[in-house]
Specification:
Elements: H1 4-11, E1 15-19, H2 28-35, E2 42-46, E3 52-53, E4 56-59, E5 71-74, H3 78-91, E6 95-98, H4 109-124, E7 128-130, E8 136-139, E9 144-147, E10 162-166, H5 169-176, E11 185-190, H6 199-207, E12 214-219, H7 226-237, E13 242-246, H8 251-261, H9 268-278, E14 281-283, H10 288-298, E15 306-311, H11 314-326, H12 336-345, E16 356-357, H13 366-378, E17 382-389, H14 398-410, E18 413-418, H15 428-433, E19 437-440, H16 443-461, H17 473-485, H18 493-502, E20 511-513, H19 516-526, E21 530-535, H20 542-545, E22 548-552, H21 555-570, E23 580-585, E24 591-600, E25 604-611, H22 615-619, E26 622-626, H23 631-639, H24 644-647, H25 658-674, E27 679-689, E28 694-696, E29 699-703
Parallel strand pairs: 1-2, 1-5, 2-4, 5-6, 6-7, 10-11, 10-12, 12-13, 13-14, 15-16, 15-17, 17-18, 18-19
Antiparallel strand pairs: 3-4, 8-9, 8-11, 20-23, 21-22, 21-23, 24-25, 24-27, 25-26, 27-28, 27-29
Length: 713
């Protein structure tokens, strides 16, 4: 991971050299030179065909410059890039930005090899490289507008600014144009092919840069996404939220990402789980990224979870209540002192409650708005004041300054919801430029951002997941030897239950019977009723094969079931692959829960929970997280299920012991983490859960090939 000190000369250069500077209208070199008109550092031009361009001296080579530049921008064709990188390496340049396309993104092996060569040259020389196929890197604090594209030029970013990172240059610059209506960016950093410096490096850089207070990222995918998770952790430790909009979430999008930047999109569900695990704020809509990031850049930590709504429109107040309720956001009623002010300031045809309808009287009595806003801001139940602007007109604009002043004074945030269709109407830019006022273009976007803000703040305040192991090292080592000793790529149910039980996961006890008589003897010892299943590595999914029998109440039923199970098993496998029949007690009724794990090729071990039995496939109501995980995170997964009410007691049923169930989820996650090099997947399905008992009745563990498994100590 490149950090701030590694990328300083590249992103905050004291000097820049343009290789391929040109006087030709429309050329990248000339467009870049003009974009650097307000650059605060030293600028050098390199092109042997010119003596001067736009009044600046032009040099024949980098070696002829009066100093070694911090950053070299290659505005020359692809064929010249490798030679320029070699010269940069010899001189000790800090970083290189390559605009040229036609490298690995073409899919051609020779072009991919060419890209690999320039990266190797740069890394061996300690030169950081952005691109190729890159639109540019903008540092507004320095006026370092390093791009050939048309872009806004500002004097300086405001103190509460967004640092923007994008894999897509065009979309990154599309976001950056929000500057035109008042949004403040400290940087716009695009990665192109991410051949060396990528979005994770840029996020780590911004995490340690004082110019921004929030980081926004347009993300496609990457071959090592755990680097992004690591970068988000650096940002979290510096108190900076990372807000991500991910594209390439479907099969077609993933294919486009591969051809566009040579990156891997990966599994969308696992990405989402990893983002949540890392405390990344994920937005679902392109238009929400800048709005949400701007809000986070301005907002302090919430001092209360309650939200107050003050509107001059009764309809807008109702909209706010609907959106808040749909997201579980509290709109508590004001305290007595606040209520008294509202009742005095609002006419009787208004509403002196929350949501508050101040009515159109604010036109004739502007002070009524200040009185209401101040009373709500002062109420300790509220951390945020939401004010819908239904109509854009000059009379309303001063209210923005009132909100900014009051929010500053009380250490809170005010949100204006711009409901008018005059998008750039009077006051919109003033709201964007206010330090403690966030502007949203829809009510839903506003309350969605508030929901994410509360969640992010809670996670930021929590401790990182505990690293303490739930099982002793000798237990883990013993289980590892059992996994290594397995002869097939799937463990039998009995073997799987044994290793899971060693991890403290409660599993139903069973007996392996080689004959009907042994099955009857086992049933007598266990006690009727019993369950019987075939034990065979060739039949991991037993129900479909007809090799499971439930609620066998006597010896005759056991004998008949044994014959049926063996006969059905022989239809799908041979006798040598059948170890026998498992006999186990019939577990009483309860909520069936599925807990599984898999080793993701990009993210490593992951854990998933949901309703068990056939419901896991039917309902698709599951939660995913990276493994290992903390107890609190396991509880969040369980409580976040749509079916969570079944676990908490529904229509007279007693609630499941969620703490005990969360402990089991953590133990499955640790099992997957400890043995990530041995297993491919794990299914514990179902766990039968009731108030006083949780027990697993079936398990499946998939193993890597023997060649892939480690050698046991």
């Amino acid at each position: 991971m490149y950090r701030h000190s590694d990328l300083r000369r590249l992103v905050a250069p004291a000097s820049i050299a343009i290789v391929g500077a040109s006087a030709r209208e429309g050329s990248f070199g000339l467009r870049l030179l003009r974009n650097l008109g307000n650059y605060l550092g030293r600028l050098h031009l390199v092109n042997s065909r010119y003596e001067r361009i736009e009044g600046l001296p032009c040099h024949p080579s980098l070696s002829a410059l009066p100093e070694v530049p911090d950053c070299v921008v290659v505005a020359a064709p692809r064929e010249q890039v490798e030679a320029v990188i070699e010269e940069c390496g010899r001189l000790g340049v800090g970083g290189v930005i390559v605009f040229a396309s036609g490298f690995a993104e073409t899919g051609k092996p020779d072009r991919a090899a060419e890209q690999a060569r320039i990266v190797e040259i740069a890394r061996n020389a300690g030169v950081r490289l952005v691109g190729p196929n890159c639109l540019g890197v903008l540092n507004y604090s320095l006026g370092a507008i390093v791009t050939f594209a048309a872009t806004a030029v500002i004097d300086a970013p405001r103190p509460l600014s967004i640092g923007l990172v994008s894999q897509s240059g065009a979309l990154g610059f599309a976001f950056g144009q929000a500057i035109e209506h008042g949004v403040s960016f400290s940087h716009v950093l695009t990665a192109g092919n991410s051949a060396d410096v990528d979005v994770a490096d840029f996020i780590a850089y911004l995490a340690e840069d004082d110019a921004c207070t929030a980081i926004a990222c347009l993300f496609e995918g990457m071959a090592e996404p755990m680097r992004l998770i690591e970068a988000a952790g650096i940002a979290r430790r510096h108190g900076k939220p990372v807000i991500v909009y991910k594209i390439a979430t479907g099969e077609q999008g993933a294919a486009a990402a591969l051809s566009h930047t040579g990156s891997l999109a990966g599994s969308n569900r696992t990405y989402r789980a990893a983002f949540e695990h890392a405390g990344i704020v994920l937005v679902e809509d392109f238009n929400a990224l800048v709005e949400t990031a701007s809000f986070f850049a301005k907002a302090p930590r919430p001092v209360a979870s309650g939200v107050a709504v003050a509107s001059t429109s009764g309809g807008a107040a109702i909209m706010a209540a609907d959106e808040a309720e749909s997201r579980g956001i509290e709109l508590p009623q004001p305290a007595e002192a606040c209520r008294a002010v509202l009742a005095d300031a609002i006419p009787e045809f208004g509403s002196a409650r929350n949501p508050c309808d101040i009515t159109a009287q604010v036109i004739s009595d502007p002070m009524s708005f200040r009185r209401v806003a101040e009373a709500l801001m002062a109420d300790s139940a509220y951390g945020t004041l939401v004010v819908p602007f239904a109509y854009a007109y000059d009379i309303a604009t001063p209210r923005i300054g009132v909100l900014d002043e009051l929010a500053r004074r009380h250490g809170k945030i005010a949100c204006i919801v711009w409901l008018t269709q005059w998008i750039e109407g009077p006051g919109s830019t003033i709201a964007e430029q206010s330090d403690r006022v966030a502007l949203f273009r829809s009510m839903g976007a506003c309350f969605e951002a508030l929901k994410k803000w509360h969640g992010w703040s809670q996670r930021a305040a929590a401790r990182d997941p505990a690293s303490a192991a739930l099982v002793a090292p000798e237990v883990s080592a013993s289980v590892g030897r059992s996994l290594d000793a397995a002869q097939a790529e799937v463990m039998t149910e009995g073997q799987a239950k044994a290793v899971l039980a060693a991890y403290g996961i409660p599993m139903v006890q069973d007996r392996l019977a080689a004959s009907a008589d042994e099955a009857i003897a086992a049933a007598r010892e266990i006690g009727f009723p019993v369950v019987m299943k075939v034990e065979s590595i060739d039949i991991p999914h037993k129900t479909e094969a007809g090799v499971v029998r439930l609620a066998l109440a006597d010896e005759n039923a056991v004998r008949a079931a044994h014959a049926e199970i063996v006969a059905n098993a022989l239809r799908v496998t041979h006798a040598d692959a059948i170890r026998g029949v498992l006999v186990q007690p019939m577990v009483g009724a309860g909520v069936e829960v599925f807990v599984g794990a898999r080793v993701d090729p990009l993210f490593g071990p992951t854990v998933v929970v949901g309703l068990g039995g056939i419901m896991v496939e039917l309902m698709r109501d599951t939660a995913v997280s990276l493994a290992p995980l903390a107890h609190d995170e396991a509880l969040r997964m369980l409580r976040g299920l749509k079916s969570a009410r079944l676990l908490q007691g529904f229509r007279g049923s007693e609630p499941v012991d969620l703490d005990k169930l969360a402990d089991i989820v953590c133990r499955v996650a640790q099992f997957a983490s400890d043995h990530r090099s041995r297993i491919t997947e794990l299914d514990l399905n179902p766990l039968i859960c009731s108030k006083d008992r949780i027990v697993g009745v079936d398990a499946l563990i998939g193993l890597r090939t023997r060649a892939e498994r480690p050698t046991s100590p």
